[in-house]
Amino acid sequence: MPASRPEQVFNEDGVCDACVSAEHKHGVIDWEERENEFESLLSQYRNDGTRYDCIIPVSGGKDSLFQAITMRDKFNMHPLCVNHLPCDLTDVGWENLLFLRDQGFDVIHIGANRKAYREMVRIGFFKLGDSCWPEHIGIFTAPVRVAVQYDIPLLIWGENSQFEYGGPVTKKDNNFLDRNWLEQFQMLGYRISDVVHDGIDLNDIKTFHYPSDEEINRVGVTGLFLGYFTKWDSKRNAEHALSLGWHRNPDGPVEGAYNDIENLDCKWIGGLHDYMKFIKFGYGRATDQLCIEIRAGRMTRDDAIQALRASSEGKVPWKYVPDFLDYLQISEVEFENTLDRFTNRRLFLRDDDGNLIKDGNGNLTRRFPIWE
After folding, report:
1. How far apart are CA 284 and CA 302, in angstroms?
2. Of the candidates 75, 106, 281, 351, which lies 20 to 30 Å from 5 by C-alpha distance?
3. Cα separation of 127 and 138, whole Å?
4. What is the pLDDT of residue 136?
5. pLDDT > 50? residue 322
6. How far apart are CA 345 and CA 357, in angstroms?
7. Residue 206 near residue 110 (C-beta atoms within 8 A)
């Protein structure tokens, strides 16, 4: 992982905290003890099946499918799946959402007010450099709102990203997710209440409001990371999902990615969102995915470097750009100027006048390749 990754920590030997976590994950943590602890917790919520006893936030992806199946078939729980619909679904994303129901799960789809949603995408793109800002909020607020409304206190999230991929030591050992976690890691310093300054009526974005502390306490809402109690493995999750008939991306790896099994649901979360991460921090989705393979012991660093070089990471993801321009009703010039505005110029080649150097397709060149 590059040092440009936000909140990345390296120890005195130059090893990142994600690799330190991996050592604990594969060689130190007693997963049987963790599962026994989990079973003890679940026994406080499990019922006879006449009511839902937990909520699984789902996107239709391999990991949320694995969460739902694990909670039902391994831990004998009765989950309700809750999905916050992205602004523009792909065909394969919709197929995988329906696939959850084919596997025997009830799914509630929360579709936000599209007019207000579009304005939140506009804020994310132009102000925060994140084309999928509302998606990142909605998946963490809509399920909690359903938990309050349906009186279902237990939510089961997937992995703790700070443990799996690196982050503050104070958060990496968490087994729960709460309002503070959401605001620290998903809001990008821009609170929901701030959107009134952009002309959005707060009453038009109810799905993005986290319930009040009073509501949370009344229901006793608790959000647990499944990845704290069971050993998380994204490749295992994918293999299990595929064996059931879940759909990988029919066109191969999503733009900027190494594999074809992640970020399939929204047209621009797998391409444009990851590209904006690349121009800000100098690395993208393929690097993330390959580092996971290295830490899991399935790939050497040398092989991962070759795979990264062969990937499309760092290339402008033009496939769905026309759809994005049409969605926001903006020009290609506005689009490219916004990308330039969020580009970290210290990380990419520039000419003598300080202008970014691009090839014929608008692609940049890193000054400091990760593999050097």
Report:
1. 18
2. 351
3. 18
4. 87
5. yes
6. 10
7. no
Long-range contacts of 301-310 (CB under 8 A, 24+ apart): 305/370, 305/371, 307/258, 308/258, 308/370, 308/371, 309/371
When the pLDDT of each residue in the chain is averaged and rounded to a whole number, the result is 90
In the prediction, which pLDDT does 203 show? 92
**Rounded Cα distance, 297 and 281, in Å:** 25
Report the distance separating Cα 201 and Cα 208, nearest Å. Answer: 12
Strands (DSSP E) found in 133-209: 154-157
3-class state of residue 343 by DSSP: coil
Which range, of 136-145, 168-177, 215-224, 278-287, averages the lowest pLDDT?
168-177
Number of H helices, E strands in the chain: 17, 5
Give a yes or no: residue 304 inside a domain.
yes
Residue-wise pLDDT for 22-44, tens only, equals 999 999 999 999 999 999 999 99
Which H or E element spans position 366?
Answer: none
Same domain, 209 and 326: no
- What does the buried/exposed string (b/e) look like for 114-140 if buried means 16 or more CB atoms within 10 Å of the residue's CB? eebbebbbbbbbbeebbbbbbbbbbbb
DSSP 212: P
> Domain of 366?
249-372
Q: Quick one: pLDDT at residue 171?
A: 47
Provide the angle, in degrees to the nearest 10, between the axes of the packed helices 301-310 and 285-295. 160
325: exposed, middle or buried (Cβ count in 10 Å: 0-12, 13-18, 19+): middle
Q: How many residues does the chain have?
A: 372
**212 and 259 housed in the same domain:** no
Percent of the chain with pLDDT over 90: 76
- At residue 35, the pLDDT reads 96
State the total domains in the chain. 2
> What distance in Å separates the CA atoms of residue 147 and residue 120, rounded to the nearest whole number?
24
